[in-house]
Amino acid sequence: MPEQHQLIVGPVITEKSSAAFQARKEYAFRVQAQATKPQIRAAIEALFEVTVTDVRTLVVRAKRKSYGRYVGRRPAWKKAIVTLKEGDAIQVFEG
């Protein structure tokens, strides 16, 4: 299993994740595929010094892409949606 700083690949910044942040203070992260909810919770708390109240995960399915006659696919990846304690914030999203 990767170290805590390697579990979190990066933030997911899209219109949908920005709307979820504005409405419910939920943060979305791209994480390693083998990461579990307790490991994600510990990594977020250690990296950003916040208190996590809820972690939800989902696997984003692979997409088939074609470019002319060449066909390939994007890989599947895991997303974690994290809710923080009232008053806590992560500066990456507030930027």
What's the count of strands?
6
Taking all Cα atoms into account, the compactness measure Rg is 15 Å
Q: Determine the structural class based on helices, strands and strand pairing.
A: alpha+beta
Distance between the termini: 31 Å
Tally of individual helices = 4
- Overall domain count: 1
CATH topology: Alpha-Beta Plaits
Low-pLDDT segments? none
Quote the average pLDDT: 91
By CATH, the superfamily comes out as RRM (RNA recognition motif) domain
CATH domain class name: Alpha Beta
Spell out the helices and strands N to C: HEHEHEEEEH
The best one-word shape is globular
Annotated CATH architecture:
2-Layer Sandwich
Please bin the fraction of helical residues: 25-40%
Beta-strand content estimate: 35-45%
Spatial arrangement of strands, main beta sheet: 1-2-6-3
Biggest β-sheet strands, sense, barrel: 4 strands, antiparallel
